[in-house]
Hints:
This protein is α/β, with parallel strands linked by helices. The chain contains seven helices and nine strands; from the N terminus they run E-H-E-H-E-E-H-E-H-H-E-H-E-H-E-E. The chain has helices spanning 34-41, 66-75, 113-120, 138-142, 144-153, 174-191, 206-229, and strands spanning 12-13, 53-60, 88-97, 100-109, 128-134, 161-167, 194-197, 238-241, 248-251. It is globular and about 50 Å long. The two termini are 37 Å apart. Bound molecules: guanosine-5'-triphosphate and magnesium ion.
Amino acid sequence: MNILAPVRRDRVLTELPQYLRKEAALHVHKDFHPRVTCACQEHRTGTVGRFKISKVIVVGDLSVGKTCLINRFCKDTFDKNYKATIGVDFEMERFEVLGVPFSLQLWDTAGQERFKCIASTYYRGAQAIIIVFNLNDVASLEHTKQWLADALKENDPSSVLLFLVGSKKDLSTPAQYMLMEKDALKVAQEMKAEYWAVSSLTGENVREFFFRVTALTFEANVLAELEKSGSRRIGDVIRINSDDSNLYLTASKKKPVCCP
Length: 260
Ligand SMILES: Nc1nc2c(ncn2[C@@H]2O[C@H](COP(=O)(O)OP(=O)(O)OP(=O)(O)O)[C@@H](O)[C@H]2O)c(=O)[nH]1
Ligand SMILES: [Mg+2]
């Protein structure tokens, strides 16, 4: 990845992408949190946009389509032949959200039991967990709870964002899909995850889904930065004045224009 290259034009987010289903959305606000919008306008996003790379892990049963999902988004390719992921793999994606550079590291993990132990060592430090199941295989939906439990052992359940993604939508008839969606929405609600249904073969919802992951991860990061900064305002300019031949530091006291 060339970190100096400009962000691709199709990776620029100026608005909050919307959820797929209201019943299982992480939040239903139409716009980014006002404090986030304001912080971006005032260039007060702290480490977000400068050094921070957010880690996203993708877990789920073997052959549910984790690798294909990442490849469809990152490379716009689809391979119909199954090649098991051995251990882990990752892709970097650079975005610009509300004018702020933001990078995601997408970790593709192995679903096969024999590689699970290597893969699980990479779970730590995730800001978002994507749990994938096959919309045409009810057992893979049932197993999502175990995948989530394993991933949460290595992460802070109170701050990590969860997404439950049904894959291979192109293989279901509308009636089959509706049945599966009912069960999946229930599981997503129990997990407090946002529900999505995608097809990596046709590309349906893939871009929308990753944009939503990016936007919500970005929003959570900026809010956390603002919280952390407390009374010290992120981005405040430290000025060096040289009055009276004494050098001293003063923080800019400029009041925020739009922050609530
Ligand atoms: N029809 C259809 N097939 C898909 C789709 N996504 C993946 N597949 C197929 O499902 C098989 C498994 O896909 P992978 O992406 O390799 O599965 P995985 O979850 O990464 O598997 P592991 O790496 O073993 O955990 C491949 O043959 C893919 O071509 C989809 O959206 N539609
Ligand atoms: Mg794979």
